[in-house]
Protein backbone atom coordinates (compact mmCIF):
# COMPACT_ATOMS: atom_id res chain seq x y z
CA UNK A 1 0.00 0.00 0.00
CA UNK A 2 1.37 3.42 -0.90
CA UNK A 3 1.57 6.06 1.75
CA UNK A 4 0.38 9.55 0.88
CA UNK A 5 2.80 12.37 1.37
CA UNK A 6 1.81 15.75 2.69
CA UNK A 7 3.58 18.99 2.00
CA UNK A 8 2.51 21.66 4.50
CA UNK A 9 3.09 25.14 3.29
CA UNK A 10 2.05 28.69 3.92
CA UNK A 11 1.08 31.58 1.76
CA UNK A 12 3.35 34.62 1.94
CA UNK A 13 2.40 37.19 4.62
CA UNK A 14 -0.24 39.64 3.57
CA UNK A 15 0.58 43.29 3.08
CA UNK A 16 -1.04 44.25 6.38
CA UNK A 17 0.94 41.66 8.36
CA UNK A 18 -2.03 39.44 9.19
CA UNK A 19 -1.58 35.69 9.23
CA UNK A 20 -2.57 33.65 6.23
CA UNK A 21 -3.98 30.15 5.94
CA UNK A 22 -1.88 27.00 5.83
CA UNK A 23 -2.06 24.70 2.83
CA UNK A 24 -1.50 20.95 2.66
CA UNK A 25 -0.85 19.34 -0.70
CA UNK A 26 -1.14 15.56 -0.76
CA UNK A 27 0.17 13.47 -3.63
CA UNK A 28 -0.32 9.70 -3.53
CA UNK A 29 1.69 7.28 -5.61
CA UNK A 30 -1.53 6.40 -7.44
CA UNK A 31 -1.70 9.98 -8.64
CA UNK A 32 -4.51 11.23 -6.43
CA UNK A 33 -4.11 14.80 -5.28
CA UNK A 34 -5.75 16.89 -2.60
CA UNK A 35 -5.21 20.57 -1.99
CA UNK A 36 -6.72 21.90 1.22
CA UNK A 37 -7.87 25.51 1.37
CA UNK A 38 -5.11 27.41 -0.45
CA UNK A 39 -5.58 28.76 -3.98
CA UNK A 40 -3.53 27.08 -6.76
CA UNK A 41 -1.53 30.27 -7.32
CA UNK A 42 -0.12 30.42 -3.79
CA UNK A 43 3.61 29.57 -3.84
CA UNK A 44 4.12 26.87 -1.23
CA UNK A 45 7.08 26.44 1.06
CA UNK A 46 7.57 22.75 0.36
CA UNK A 47 8.66 20.86 3.47
CA UNK A 48 8.96 17.42 1.91
CA UNK A 49 12.11 16.76 -0.08
CA UNK A 50 11.54 18.30 -3.51
CA UNK A 51 13.25 15.48 -5.39
CA UNK A 52 10.90 12.95 -3.77
CA UNK A 53 7.87 14.90 -4.99
CA UNK A 54 9.36 15.03 -8.49
CA UNK A 55 9.88 11.26 -8.46
CA UNK A 56 6.24 10.75 -7.50
CA UNK A 57 5.09 13.04 -10.29
CA UNK A 58 7.25 11.14 -12.76
CA UNK A 59 5.56 7.91 -11.68
CA UNK A 60 1.97 8.96 -12.38
CA UNK A 61 0.01 9.26 -15.61
CA UNK A 62 -0.57 12.98 -16.00
CA UNK A 63 -4.00 14.51 -15.74
CA UNK A 64 -4.92 18.19 -15.54
CA UNK A 65 -4.79 18.03 -11.74
CA UNK A 66 -1.11 17.07 -11.92
CA UNK A 67 -0.32 20.02 -14.19
CA UNK A 68 -2.01 22.30 -11.68
CA UNK A 69 -0.02 20.73 -8.85
CA UNK A 70 3.27 21.25 -10.71
CA UNK A 71 2.37 24.90 -11.20
CA UNK A 72 1.54 25.31 -7.52
CA UNK A 73 4.70 23.57 -6.31
CA UNK A 74 7.16 25.23 -8.70
CA UNK A 75 5.86 28.80 -8.61
CA UNK A 76 8.16 30.88 -6.44
CA UNK A 77 9.89 27.84 -4.92
CA UNK A 78 13.54 27.63 -5.93
CA UNK A 79 14.17 24.20 -4.39
CA UNK A 80 11.27 22.67 -6.27
CA UNK A 81 12.21 24.43 -9.50
CA UNK A 82 15.79 23.14 -9.27
CA UNK A 83 14.59 19.60 -8.60
CA UNK A 84 12.26 19.76 -11.60
CA UNK A 85 14.96 21.18 -13.88
CA UNK A 86 17.33 18.38 -12.83
CA UNK A 87 14.79 15.71 -13.79
CA UNK A 88 12.92 14.66 -16.96
CA UNK A 89 9.68 16.15 -15.60
CA UNK A 90 9.59 19.09 -18.03
CA UNK A 91 10.12 16.72 -20.95
CA UNK A 92 7.28 14.53 -19.66
CA UNK A 93 5.11 17.62 -19.23
CA UNK A 94 5.78 18.74 -22.80
CA UNK A 95 5.15 15.23 -24.11
CA UNK A 96 1.79 15.12 -22.37
CA UNK A 97 0.74 18.30 -24.18
CA UNK A 98 2.24 17.67 -27.62
CA UNK A 99 0.89 14.12 -27.94
CA UNK A 100 -2.66 15.07 -26.96
CA UNK A 101 -4.80 14.81 -30.09
CA UNK A 102 -6.93 17.81 -29.24
CA UNK A 103 -6.19 19.32 -25.79
CA UNK A 104 -9.16 21.20 -24.38
CA UNK A 105 -9.06 24.76 -23.08
CA UNK A 106 -8.45 23.76 -19.45
CA UNK A 107 -5.62 21.38 -20.37
CA UNK A 108 -3.86 24.03 -22.44
CA UNK A 109 -4.28 26.65 -19.73
CA UNK A 110 -2.96 24.31 -17.01
CA UNK A 111 -0.05 23.20 -19.19
CA UNK A 112 0.99 26.78 -19.88
CA UNK A 113 0.88 27.69 -16.19
CA UNK A 114 2.95 24.63 -15.26
CA UNK A 115 5.57 25.21 -17.96
CA UNK A 116 5.95 28.86 -16.99
CA UNK A 117 6.39 27.93 -13.34
CA UNK A 118 9.13 25.46 -14.30
CA UNK A 119 11.06 27.71 -16.70
CA UNK A 120 10.91 31.30 -15.43
CA UNK A 121 14.32 32.18 -13.96
CA UNK A 122 15.57 28.68 -14.81
CA UNK A 123 17.99 28.41 -17.73
CA UNK A 124 18.26 24.67 -17.06
CA UNK A 125 14.49 24.36 -17.27
CA UNK A 126 14.31 26.32 -20.53
CA UNK A 127 17.04 24.12 -22.00
CA UNK A 128 14.64 21.16 -21.75
CA UNK A 129 12.18 22.96 -24.03
CA UNK A 130 14.21 22.35 -27.20
CA UNK A 131 11.50 20.14 -28.62
CA UNK A 132 10.16 21.28 -32.03
CA UNK A 133 6.71 19.78 -31.40
CA UNK A 134 6.23 22.13 -28.46
CA UNK A 135 6.25 25.22 -30.66
CA UNK A 136 4.09 23.56 -33.31
CA UNK A 137 1.55 22.74 -30.59
CA UNK A 138 1.64 26.32 -29.34
CA UNK A 139 0.83 27.57 -32.85
CA UNK A 140 -2.08 25.13 -33.11
CA UNK A 141 -3.46 26.35 -29.79
CA UNK A 142 -3.11 29.98 -30.83
CA UNK A 143 -5.22 29.23 -33.88
CA UNK A 144 -7.84 26.98 -32.28
CA UNK A 145 -8.21 28.45 -28.77
CA UNK A 146 -8.61 32.24 -28.83
CA UNK A 147 -9.40 32.18 -25.11
CA UNK A 148 -5.91 30.81 -24.40
CA UNK A 149 -3.90 33.17 -26.57
CA UNK A 150 -2.66 35.18 -23.60
CA UNK A 151 -1.59 31.99 -21.82
CA UNK A 152 0.24 30.66 -24.88
CA UNK A 153 1.98 33.90 -25.81
CA UNK A 154 3.08 34.56 -22.23
CA UNK A 155 4.44 31.02 -21.93
CA UNK A 156 6.31 31.24 -25.23
CA UNK A 157 7.93 34.45 -23.96
CA UNK A 158 9.00 32.68 -20.76
CA UNK A 159 10.46 29.73 -22.65
CA UNK A 160 12.28 31.77 -25.31
CA UNK A 161 13.64 34.62 -23.18
CA UNK A 162 17.45 34.43 -23.03
CA UNK A 163 17.44 31.15 -24.95
CA UNK A 164 18.64 31.40 -28.54
CA UNK A 165 17.98 27.75 -29.38
CA UNK A 166 14.35 27.95 -28.32
CA UNK A 167 13.94 31.14 -30.35
CA UNK A 168 15.19 29.28 -33.43
CA UNK A 169 12.67 26.50 -32.88
CA UNK A 170 9.90 29.05 -32.46
CA UNK A 171 10.92 30.78 -35.69
CA UNK A 172 10.85 27.46 -37.55
CA UNK A 173 7.38 26.64 -36.21
CA UNK A 174 6.00 30.10 -36.98
CA UNK A 175 7.24 30.02 -40.58
CA UNK A 176 5.07 32.32 -42.66
CA UNK A 177 2.45 32.75 -39.93
CA UNK A 178 2.04 36.36 -38.81
CA UNK A 179 1.83 36.38 -35.02
CA UNK A 180 0.11 39.77 -35.22
CA UNK A 181 -2.97 37.87 -36.40
CA UNK A 182 -3.38 36.77 -32.77
CA UNK A 183 -3.30 40.24 -31.21
CA UNK A 184 -7.11 40.64 -31.24
CA UNK A 185 -6.81 44.35 -30.34
CA UNK A 186 -5.16 43.38 -27.04
CA UNK A 187 -2.50 45.97 -26.25
CA UNK A 188 -0.54 43.86 -23.76
CA UNK A 189 -0.57 40.86 -26.07
CA UNK A 190 0.64 43.06 -28.91
CA UNK A 191 3.66 44.09 -26.82
CA UNK A 192 4.52 40.46 -26.08
CA UNK A 193 4.20 39.49 -29.73
CA UNK A 194 6.44 42.38 -30.71
CA UNK A 195 8.95 41.09 -28.15
CA UNK A 196 8.79 37.59 -29.65
CA UNK A 197 9.28 38.95 -33.15
CA UNK A 198 12.40 40.75 -31.95
CA UNK A 199 13.70 37.51 -30.41
CA UNK A 200 13.22 35.69 -33.72
CA UNK A 201 15.14 38.25 -35.79
UniProtKB/TrEMBL annotation:
InterPro entries xrefs: ARM-like, ARM-type_fold
Top-rank taxon, per record: Eukaryota
SUPFAM superfamilies: ARM repeat
Region (Disordered): 1-46
Biased composition (Low complexity): 1-14
UniProt feature, compositional bias: Polar residues: 20-31
Protein name (database record): Uncharacterized protein
Gene source species: Triparma verrucosa
Lineage, uppermost ranks: Eukaryota, Sar, Stramenopiles, Ochrophyta, Bolidophyceae
Amino acid sequence: MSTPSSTPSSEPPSADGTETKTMTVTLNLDGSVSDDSAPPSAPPNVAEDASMLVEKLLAVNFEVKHLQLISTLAFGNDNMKKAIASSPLIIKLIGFFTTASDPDVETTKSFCAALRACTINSAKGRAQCRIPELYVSFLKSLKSQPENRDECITTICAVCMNDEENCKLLKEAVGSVDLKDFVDDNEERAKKIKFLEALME
